[in-house]
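Input:
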Amino acid sequence: MRHYDWLQRFLQMVLTLLGITVVAFLLREAIPGDPVEILLGKEGLFQPSPEEVRLFRTRFGLDRPLFVQYFRWLGDVLRGDLGRSFVTKRPVAQEIRERLPATLLLALAGFSFAVLIGLLGGVFLAFWSGSIVDHLVRVVTLLFRSMPTFFVAVVLITLLGERWRVFPTSGMGSWRHLVLPAVVSGSGFGILIMRLLRTNLLQVLGNDYILAARARGLSAWKVLLKHAFPNGFVSVLTMFGLYLGGILGGSPVVETIFAWPGAGRLLVQAIYGRDFPLLQAFVLVFGVTYVAMQMLVDVCYFFLNPQVRPGKRIV
Amino acid sequence: MHSFVHRRFFLVVLWSLLVFLLLVCSALAQERPEVIIAGHRDLVPGENDPYYTSTLLHVWEPLVTRDEEGWPAPMLAESWEVSEDGRVWTFHLRRGVLFQDLTPFNAEAVVANFERYRRISPANSPFYPFRIHETYPGLKEVTAIDEYTVRLTFEEPVPALPFLMVNFGSAMFSPRNFREDGFFNGFPIGTGPYRLVEHKKDEYCRLEPFEHYWGQKAISPIRVRVIPQAETRFSALKAEEIFGVIDIGALTPALAMELLKDERFAVEVSPSTIAHYLFMNGSRPPFDDVRLRKAVSLAIDREFIVRELYYGYGEVMGTILSPASPFSVPLPIEHDLAEARRLAKEVLGEKRVQVRFIFPSWSLERYPYKEQAEYIQSVLRELGIDAQIQILEGGAFNEAMKAGEYEIAMRNQGLPNAEPNTIFTWYVLSDGAGNVEYHLNFKDQEADALILQARREMDMEKRFQMYARVQEIAKEGYHWIPLFNNVDLLVYNKRLKGFRSLGKKYDVTLWEAYLE
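Output:
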């Protein structure tokens, strides 16, 4: 039975990935603006001749029927060739590869910050539930969470970068350059984890087995961390999966504001420039990563709680 | 005894003097600290770009540049002359110039560069696309007459060739710098005062002075950072992480004014080739009627826009040709709301009309276009025109203009080169690409004849008169309404010395810049 469940899951994943490739490819039809005009023209200064347009379309295979283009592109992708950027004419894989480390670094730093404040804050608030501190922290975090990312970024840059010069305002260099963008990037998610974990822990703490553990003489902290936390953490793990799944998207807003040279900024440039090979590659890579992360989360679920299996009903 | 003491004293003084001199020499010999400036985009598109870097970085130089009045001026070509029939141009090259790989700049190198132009054309660039048939129309042959003389032969007369060649039209690189396809095989090797020594895409580039430069040598190494957001550039200036800004849209007027309240900062005003216009859809009502287009033009107070929204930084225009061009004529700037109302009433009567007023979202990063549009919307209301403002993403904006799905479009427009025929052909010629594509629907036989005739006119004075007449005719068409010419506000920290604008050369003196 177990093997069949995993096979089913794997087939679902393959179908999802195929669907992603179709969506990625059809982007060019959905987004307004002809890439040929945008790339060959220049703000009304130059109009490409019909011959130039024809040559461009032939060179990039845009003159073929759509389904031919799709299968040709899919074949290239399966061979590891993501095509060439319309704008830079460099291999798309190279463009993304050069930017990924910066995005991964920022994402992991943001994630670490989020996990730190999320887990510590969630446990702390659950332990001190009902106190003034609990209420105060929840109001402040709600306020923080309701502010747009760019606003938080500008405030931090102004205060900690410009006025007090504690951290650099922008760019990538030493660990100090990483702090502000990581805080902006991870704070929203961290607050989400904090509040979710607090809620989950309070629910779990109301169960009879917790009362029994306390009756056996275990300390409150031990009950919280050893018995309540593993059960309360399971749904938080799903959130991790969602966050990590989107990790490759970077955060275009954060990367642009902090002049962080990551994949998110490259994605924004690709959208404005209608650089479809790059856009398609991004959608594909994001999609594959997302699906892979969800698979990883499922595996983690299984190890955390073997009763949880794909397709299995828990009576 | 006394002589011994005197000798000791003299030796001590001598040694102290020597040590002092050594310290002074050491301080003088130390390299200048790196000057760090920033722009909103990467000025180094790379090896698959026809120029590799922007002209602003002074890594490469052209044969022909622009003087501070906007006229073609010598650079790597010291002088030139043209045959009577306008088909043969002879360029005399500057002597004693070395490329940054220490190979000589000479006629052979120029010929190699022109061969390269043929191989790479057409080539796209975030600066100016390179099209050899547009910059060098009908080029037949490029010949080295001697080591420092090059001859260009054309099929048809090209009277305005130097105007077409300015800057991006005649970039020169070492012939060893090209791949087989004509693009670059490594960092660019030009003749400029700076060498590109490091480049991290979308992060920064580093320039080092070229010690064998033929002209005034650069003082300091430069780092040009890429900071896309204007607000972040503002903060970086305040935090003294950067000491100046560069390139178009360096800072919005509001942010520049805010910085100038801080006594640490000053501003260099750099005239731009970019001007702001309203494009009027003349192919359908209500703006198929020239009277209503004229009413719109008369109703707008351009001085108000420049004064209130751009803090006085801008040059109002009455002509369609930017004052950046030496052929621009100062036509009267009209603002007459009463006459505007009269004309609108003549066309619309008591009716009110709804129009779609569009502009691209990317312009918001550089200009106060939202406020500008709202002001124009308010004056149009007085004419019986209810404008619905729509901010469209760049691609969607272009699509809307091409589909004619607008009545008024607001956008900036630059000059592709110093030859106004290019821009007139686009927007004034009856079958001009821009005129037709954007549904401006402007048709005038006299203007058409003048534009075509000017392409062959060798007499500069006659060409000037022809272009002046074209501007007068176009002004009366009101299909492409000029608002004002832009200026770039290059705010810098006063510790940065030698950083100044070069007027209509559209350049700053990077090579003179150093940190105090």
